[in-house]
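Hi all, a correction to my earlier message: I attached the wrong file for PAS/PAC sensor-containing diguanylate cyclase/phosphodiesterase. Here's the right sequence:
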Amino acid sequence: MVNTRNAMNVITELRGEGIRISVDDFGTGYSSLAYLRDLPVHDLKIDKSFVVNVAHRTKDFSIVRSIIDLAHNLDLRVVAEGIESSEVCSLLRDLGCDEGQGFYLGHPVPPADLAA
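and the right structure:
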């Protein structure tokens, strides 16, 4: 993030309006531990590349478990992206993951199709 001070100001303003802020795709790309230290965020979203095989790859399991523990120690909620099976959903629940997203839980729908 090029201008961290500006980002902090914007995020603080958004939080003041009651908007929840998440670090998306954590563990890949531009996500950084410095964001968790410096930015006033609410949630950490674990990238689906770690979630998809969490039940079958020891390294993915260790990474996901560590991210969940780290986030909770920083008083952040954890969202797992890419949940595509009951096995993965159950495992994440057992690890203490707070929320999930993925085709196992529901496919995307247009806003007009959502129940009020």
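Sorry for the mix-up. The helical segments are 4-16, 33-38, 48-51, 58-73, 86-95.
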